[in-house]
Amino acid sequence: MAYQIIYNTITKNHPMAERLYREIGEKIKQEIAKSDINIGDKLPTERVYAELFGVSRTLVREAFIMLEIEELIEVRKGSGSYLKNNLSSQTVDKVSDVGPFELLQARQVLESTIAAQAALSITKADIQQLQETLDLEGAELSSVEKSNKADRDFHLLIAKATQNTLLLDTVTRIWDMRDGNPMWQKLHARINDSSYHGQWIEDHKQVLLQLRKRNAEGARKAMWQHLENVKQTLFTLSDTDDPEFDGYIFAHPKDK
């Protein structure tokens, strides 16, 4: 049942079709309309809007990305967000229904459970293929495109190791949505530091270690933590309000 709910959500058959970030985006537009903000003026920070509407900053971050795609605002790294066009003259592009952080949350729920299932059915050939993909991912760190492909392959191979074609198809659909999602692409366009790939490879090593041990609970926890790290890393590195915070996640534990 849990798989089907997620599957219906990502295929846009779920009743909650109107995403909450869109509602927040519309509220931000209303705030802009009734304010004295002019083109070129800086907008209040994400934190201000989050407190105003009583929602999380990740939700406001997604709303800002939507408004950026609609060309209403311009996000400047290390400076903040600025009004780019009048509300009446904005260019509206079709935006995916699923925001990047909502997508990551769905992946976290689904893929952690899949990792646990894979630990029970994984074969020697599966483990060998995962190791080869992990080695390739590490060797291709200088190429974002190749490293991202290896990252995708690693996750799909784990789904394949469940021996369940529906689970593999569902994870494939999620990744296809991720790769073609304009909001995801806009989020990544804000990020200049690609060193986070190194952390994700270490996470993958931990997942593979638990799969080798056939430790279902260990694999579930390792995958859950990996995707939690992904969420926190992307949120931190795409933060335009607090640029000095960008390096925090990479600090040595003794420096924190």
Give a brief rundown of this model.
With 256 residues, the chain is mainly α. It has 2 domains: 18-89, Arc Repressor Mutant, subunit A (Orthogonal Bundle), CATH 1.10.10.10; 100-255, Up-down Bundle (Four Helix Bundle (Hemerythrin (Met), subunit A)), CATH 1.20.120.530.
Structure notes:
By secondary structure, the protein is mainly α. It has two domains: about 20-90, Arc Repressor Mutant, subunit A, CATH 1.10.10; about 100-255, Four Helix Bundle (Hemerythrin (Met), subunit A), CATH 1.20.120. The chain has eleven helices and two strands. It has helices at about 1-10, 20-35, 45-55, 55-70, 100-120, 125-140, 145-160, 165-180, 180-190, 195-210, 215-235; strands spanning about 75, 80-85. It has a two-stranded antiparallel sheet with strand order 1-2. Residues about 1-5, about 10-15 and about 245-255 have low confidence and may be disordered.
- CA-based gyration radius: 20 Å
Q: SSE order in H/E notation? A: HHHHEEHHHHHHH
- Report the total helices: 11
Q: Structural class, please?
A: mainly alpha
Fourth CATH level, the homologous superfamily of the largest domain: GntR ligand-binding domain-like
Helix content: 55-70%
Shape: elongated
| CATH topology assignment of the largest domain | Four Helix Bundle (Hemerythrin (Met), subunit A)
Number of structural units classed as domains: 2
CATH architecture of the largest domain: Up-down Bundle
In terms of DSSP E residues, the strand content is: under 5%
Distance between the terminal alpha carbons, to the nearest Å? 42 Å
**What is the tally of beta strands?**
2
**Low-pLDDT regions:** 1-7, 9-17, 243-256
Strand order of the largest sheet: 1-2
- What would the average pLDDT be, to the nearest integer? 82
